[in-house]
Design brief:
The chain has two domains: about 230 residues, Hsp33 domain (3-Layer(bab) Sandwich); about 50 residues, HSP33 redox switch-like (CBS domain Like, Alpha-Beta Complex). About 35% of the residues lie in helices and about 30% in strands. The protein contains ten helices and 13 strands. The strands form three sheets. It has a six-stranded mixed β-sheet with strand order 7-6-3-4-5-11, covered by helices on one side. A five-stranded antiparallel β-sheet has the order 8-9-2-1-10, sandwiched between helices. The protein has a two-stranded antiparallel ribbon with strand order 12-13. Helix 1 packs across helix 2 and helix 9 packs antiparallel against helix 10. The N and C termini lie far apart (about 55 Å).
Length: about 290
């Protein structure tokens, strides 16, 4: 089954909801970065969330970046997404290996540790919107719930899950974001709260064969699906973009690179593609800047 995100509302139109199946997206990220199971779980959760949050963006060129920095061995993760279902990410330390936690699950919380979640929305304005909150659990879904309430004043329920198979491949991945509209009545809120308590984990539901639509119906009852979007791992790096990044490091560093190394190889963090800039390439860039 191909990965996708749906956007929906309840029959009263008091709740907006997003649900995603992201198994292939997370598996592609795992293969590119050769991540350990606990890093796959952490990065996969954040990529799933970014895909849904990217879908919330209005402009075609809008980009959202989610960054987690912590004092655990993983150190951090960066993920970006647009509103067309293109997601990419990278972990600071892809090979973290930790024992399972006390309930036999991958210990994402310990891998991340204490730190901050930063949300950057580039909406084509002069300055990007930047919101930052402390990590309240390090489990990512709870941290995003806290972010939505504190930074955007939107009561939300976020669930994210990644199930890693014995061979370290991704067996199932997905999630949902449910947000209350300002006019949501108490009956609707109470019903949602009860359903959230009863529902099992995202990965369990996906293993049972449930689709994103099924999961939202379990939570909201009758739903209206507004649209559906394919989601995939896609890095849009190019030689020209990497060249611009080289220009941004400044004349002094470029001259050092030329004198000491006679060129250089630049690797994209998101997809590990390599771009070689030889002596003549660096001379050309330096000449432009001089």
């Amino acid at each position: 089954m191909k990965d996708y995100i749906i956007r929906a509302t309840d029959k009263k139109k008091q709740i907006r909801a997003f649900a995603a199946v992201t198994t292939n997206l997370v598996e592609e990220g795992r293969k590119i970065h050769d991540t350990s199971p606990v890093v796959s779980a952490a990065m996969g959760r954040l990529m799933t969330a970014a895909g849904m949050m990217g879908y919330m963006l209005k402009g075609e060129k809008d980009i959202i970046t989610l960054q987690i920095k912590g004092d655990g061995p993983l150190r951090g993760i960066v993920v970006t997404a647009d509103n067309k279902g293109n997601v990419k990410g990278y972990p600071y330390n892809p090979s973290v290996d930790l024992p399972l936690n006390s309930i036999g699950k991958l210990d994402v919380k310990r891998a991340i540790g204490n730190g901050y979640l930063t949300v950057i929305k580039d909406l084509g304005l002069k300055e990007p919107y930047i919101g930052q909150t402390k990590l309240v659990s390090g489990e990512i879904a709870e941290d995003l719930t806290f972010y939505f309430y504190n930074s955007e004043q939107i009561p939300s329920a976020v669930a994210l899950g990644v199930l890693v198979d014995r061979d370290w491949s991704i067996k199932k991945a997905g999630g949902f974001i449910i947000q209350l509209m300002p006019e949501t009545d108490e009956e609707t809120i109470s019903k949602l709260e009860n359903n959230l308590k009863k529902i099992s984990s995202i990965t369990s539901l996906l293993e049972e064969g449930k689709l994103a639509e099924d999961i939202l119906e379990m939570l909201l009852g009758e739903i209206e699906i507004l649209d559906k979007l394919p989601v995939n791992y896609n890095c849009n790096c190019t030689r020209e973009k990497i060249r611009k990044a080289l220009i941004s490091i400044g004349l002094k560093d470029l001259k050092e690179m030329l004198e000491e190394d006679k060129g250089g190889e630049v690797k994209c963090f998101f997809c590990n593609s390599s771009y070689v800039f030889n002596e003549d390439d660096l001379k050309e860039i330096i000449q432009e800047l001089s």
